[in-house]
Write a sequence for this structure.
């Protein structure tokens, strides 16, 4: 009889713990899509020098298109590199023909290998690297103008 109750109680307890953990994060106001790091994780080598922004995007990604004006404004202030993820160069060129190309250089990751090396979980994802090519900021969601103003511009000032 006790084993039968355990089959129902253990999953319920586990679910309650997960909900409590999620509620704690949300109540603190932390945004789980933003990772500010000083863990000295070196950015995978792609031949760029920081401080710089590295933005993974794709022509098929609707949030990437929504984020594009924010990336364009940011690229006017700091070297910004694009990595076209799981897409063709032709589709990326059409994307740029419609919206403009804000990137200093674009890398094409048609097979997703660069995404694996950078630990990508989806697009858009934006990284800021410092002059030692250490990742100091990562966001796994579209950047907003408010985030640029409150988080990114102050960080860029520190890096300069």
């Amino acid at each position: 009889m006790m084993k039968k109750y355990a089959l129902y109680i253990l999953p319920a307890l586990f679910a309650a713990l997960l909900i409590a953990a999620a509620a704690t994060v949300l109540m603190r106001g932390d945004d789980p899509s933003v990772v500010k790091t000083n863990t000295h994780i070196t950015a995978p080598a792609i031949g760029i020098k920081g401080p710089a922004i590295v933005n993974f995007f794709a022509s098929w990604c609707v949030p990437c298109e929504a984020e594009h004006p924010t990336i364009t404004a940011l690229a006017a202030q700091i070297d910004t590199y694009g990595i076209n993820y799981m897409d063709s160069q032709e589709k990326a060129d059409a994307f740029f023909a419609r919206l403009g190309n804000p990137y200093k250089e674009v890398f094409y990751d048609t097979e997703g290998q660069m995404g694996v090396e950078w630990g990508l979980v989806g697009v858009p994802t934006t990284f800021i690297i410092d002059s030692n090519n250490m990742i100091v900021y990562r966001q796994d969601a579209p950047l907003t103008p408010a985030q640029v103003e409150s988080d990114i511009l102050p960080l860029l000032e520190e890096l300069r």
